Amino acid sequence: MPSLAAVYLDHNASAPVPEELFPESEKLLKQGFANPSSIHEAGRRSRRLISEAAEHAAAFVDCDPEDVYWTSGASESNSWALHSAVQSALEKNPSRVPRLLISAIEHESVQLAAKALAARSDSRAELHSIPVDADGVIRVEALKTRLARDADWDLISVMHVNNETGVIQPIEDVVAAARSHGVPTHVDCVQTLGKIPISLKRLGANYATFSGHKIGAPKGVGFLAIQGEGKRLTALVHGKQQKGLRGGTENPVSVAMFGLVLSEMGKGRLAYPKGLEAWRDEFEAKMRDAIPGAVIHGKRARRLPNTTYVGFEGIDGDGVLMNLDLEGVAASSGSACTSGSVDPSHVLLAMGCDKAMARSSVRFSSGRNTAWPDFEKVLEVLPGIVRRMRGL
Amino acid sequence: MTTQFSGAAGRAAQGNGKRVLVAMSGGVDSSVAAALLKVQGYDVIGVHMQLWDQAEKMPKKSSGSCCSIVDAGDARRVCDILEIPFYVINARDQFQSDVIDYFVGEYLQARTPNPCVMCNNRLKFSFLLRKADELKCELVGTGHYAKVMRDHSTGEMRLCKATDPQKDQSYFLFGLKQEALARAVMPLGDFLKANVRRLAETFNLPVADKKDSQEICFIDEGGYKGFVESRSAEHNRPGGPIVNQEGNILGHHAGLYRYTIGQRKGLALGSPDAQDFYVIGYDLALNALIVGPEKELFRKSLNANNCNWIGRLDFTKGIRATAKIRSRHDEAPCLITALNNEGVTAEFDGPQRAITPGQAIVFYQGEVLIGGGWIQGLTEPVSTKLKASAGRQQGATAQL
Asked: Which residue among B84, B90, B134 sits closest to A341, beta carbon to beta carbon?
């Protein structure tokens, strides 16, 4: 059994901490132990680490540092944004039912948070979905038509880049359309961070979600950035920290690590390999040559250069993943969060794939340490796996 | 870090590096089975079948009579300790259609199902064999207490009782075909349960002191009735009359699924003469439950079908064997006569108590399991003289 995957192509699920940051991490572990709310020097040092990280984060996504709220990660940020929008609507008018417009391809943490708000007896929020086309792109025209007819929404939530397909969403158009009708927006930027430049000020979204571990910070740290009218946040986790809006002692070490990664990236370090897009295209072309009936999802859309999401007619994607694992290749089926139990991807179903195709799909996502031989290894073993499984 | 498992493959040649998929529930037995196979030099892959929706509350956490539904967490921990790959495989649809639907369906037809047998036939040695193919595993290993071996004179596979008579699970495996047996490994067949627990401790498996239970793994303390009720339409389990063989109506039943042959409790019969009556049969056409004195439970002859024979057998003169009519029945001698391709009659030397349709009858010659089938009913069924019109009327009343 290989102790560690020789080939790691699952960066959209999580990325390793860059080794060049190990010495700095050790320093942070020593420096950032104290409670940042304490009045002594050690506490102030922890506080300073968090403030500096907020500056790095704000500089990287172009927002104000005081509008950065640290969370445990993207799921909390997503839940918090939806919760806040609904609470804010209820405060304005307790007798009106809050209304949420959520894209059909949002991450489960958004979908489930919205469902929970719909099920809650005090909010009973109404949920509506924004459709996507066959390539997994939000149908902006459908959204605009809907808004022209009915603009009474408390939040529109659309992700910047889909984590499964890597398809880039026309987020500027979505936010502009929402703003022209005075509807607040939430953008889940988890897969964008470090891959596509983002300016929250220019974009104008009210809430934006970010996660650390997708770009090399440790797991368990993320932030929610807010801006615009009202800047409404309602606490989900209670306590006096972070202006009383997000309780819990901040995690100076992880937050500082996240800040450090962003600061390094801002300086052009920790860059992704230049060849990523060319490799992906060659990888996909060779895979389609070697494996009849391999379908690349979102092929015609603008995509991140690091993501290939492919379906293999007639077989079970989980079986492919297990076989790849036994060959030392780490990949995943769309969303890794529910590993084990495999429901067909809601993203692929929303794109019009049938259940069998959705179940047969596997995602390869490259990252900073990826090199062409990683793809070669996949090309060496994958056709045989698919052929054998299809032959059973 | 070197552990007792990291160097194991080099020490033993028995497994010879053959890849085996081990079905891991997370219980003691399958965990020790995986550990033994690893030590014997097999290339072991642990697989946990997910049988229920995670969101749905697990009906029960226990190690069951034949296997167990435990959450994947324990199986995962064991595989970490054994340093073997571990995967969770979604088997919800298969479990639903092949085990749960069958289980509920049988009760609704007044039969008493055996879901463990069905789970072995359809899940562990069918569905999981296909998964083994997918993962290039020659073999499927389980923690069953039974022995699988090849008869070198005929080349055929044999299935035999386990060394531990208290734990023998061969009964539940009668449905395995030659192809499945040829790929099955059951390393616990030679062990006593107590030794398996000791082995679990020796291997430092965190499951060593998990307790055994003798119930169906997915049925909780609420019992099977609530389970059947929550999974079937009310009109499919109508109430009706309780009658004796003479056709006298002695009471009402609230659905035939609530009763099993040989049951005495819960009949609530008014007549003082009927106080020690037992369920002795059903009349499905009348939707009637037939009761009678205990002696009526003792019968000698039954019909079974959907049989599976392990190896070639010659039925021309009938076959002498011993048989179990339920998992915890003491084997009794009988003569098997073939009725047609798959059906047989089993004529016991002496009467057996509570022969129950829906249960499996499993035949042995000594230690060797030669085959089995599903009990259809008595060769001479219990009947009632109740008139059809009276039965329906009574049924209607009982439903009110």
From this structure: B90
